[in-house]
Structures are given as structure tokens and as C-alpha cells.
Amino acid sequence: DDLFNDFGMKITFNLVKKIDTTFYVYGQTGSGKTHTIMGNDKVPGILPLILKVLKKQNINLTFNCIQIYNNKCLDILNNNNEIYEREDNNGKIHLTNVKHLSLKTESVTNIINMIKQNRHIGISNQNNQSSRSHLLFRINNGNHFLNILDLAGSEKAKDSVYVNKDIYRENIEINKSILILKECIRSLKNNNSHIPYRGSKLTKILKDSFERKQRRKTK
What we know:
- The structure is a single chain.
- This protein is of the alpha+beta class and 219 residues long.
- The chain has helices at residues 2-16, 33-38, 46-55, 108-118, 165-189, 201-205, 207-210, and strands at 21-25, 62-69, 72-75, 81-87, 93-96, 101-102, 121-122, 130-131, 134-141, 144-150.
- The strands form two sheets. Strands 1, 2, 3, 4, 5, 6, 9 and 10 form an eight-stranded mixed beta sheet that branches. Strands 7-8 form a two-stranded antiparallel sheet.
- A hairpin with a 2-residue loop joins strand 9 and strand 10 (144-150).
- Helix 1 (2-16) crosses helix 3 (46-55).
- The chain is globular, with a radius of gyration of 17 Å.
- 29% of the residues are buried.
């Protein structure tokens, strides 16, 4: 409740005002990222609280939900079917096969349950219910968006237990994509002309979050 009241309401009404916003949580496995976003049966997280407020607004909103697992984009709302990203001649990223649902017709409980049922989790050295995929939940108000991003739990190589090569690959992909995200944010902050968003699936589908918006000059 404190986190939601502190900034959750602000980013919720950013979407109503058509201000593009991306909110993300990151950190080591077991640090409480997914709990912050999703909550549990007794205490709602930031995402369900935002959805409940938005459902009361008299506007048409749609949403989709993508998980990036082992450098593949999967549609949580459509049985984890693979999504493909395509960049057009103008540099805009288009997602194919992604399913959009209306916030008016879907209950918050149903949305949260779909995410929980279809997201990849696994055992890590620090958490037996670790999120092994990045979760991107996007709410759309026309051409404007609110991105809520729950990054997979990261681990230092020396702290990881590699049971098999699949888990080894999971950790590599997680750490690599988080590193590239960091570099994109750094480039944006430093006003660099080049932002390396093509370095991972995660940053590629987040490209519009890194674009600098031109402000209209007023007299």
C-alpha cells in the first residue's frame, strides 16, 4: 500500500493522461520483486492495485503480457505461443502473434491468475520459486502505454548452482539481458546518440521506452 500510494497512483494516472511510462523492478533472486508486482492471495501487489483503479476509469484500455525466457518472447495470455519482433524501415518494433485483451471485459483476478499459471519459475541457489523469465505487462491507452516490468532474479556466477546446462543457459540469458538493459538506460541518461537496444529481445521490445520524445515549443 505504501509503495502504491507513493508512486503507483502517479504512474497509473500517467496512462490516463497519455504519458508513456515504464516501471521496473530488479535485483537478486529472492529480493521480493515478483511479490512487489503481483502480491499474494492476502496482500495485492502493485499490478492488481493499478488495474483496479484503471478499471474504474471510463476509457478503453487494452493490455498484453509477454515473458522473455531464454531469449524468446512468449505470450502469457495465449498459452505461451512465441511472439516475433519485427523492425520496419522507420525503426519501429512490431510484435506479431501477440494477444491483446480489453481491461473492461477481463477481471483483475483472472489476469493475475493467467500470469501466475503461465510464467516460468524454477529453483535457484537462493530461491526455490525463482522467476526465470522477465515479465512485461503493458497497458495501452491508444498509442500510449504503461509498462510494468518484473525482471528475472539475477545471481552472480559464483553464487549459482548449475544443475544442468539448461539452468546454466537460463542464468546467462538473464544476466546478459539485464546488462544490456543497464547499458541502454546509461546511454539514454548520458544522451548518447546510440542506444544498444538490439542487444537482447528484452531491450528490443522496450525500444519505445528509450526513445527521446521531442517537446513542443510554446510561446
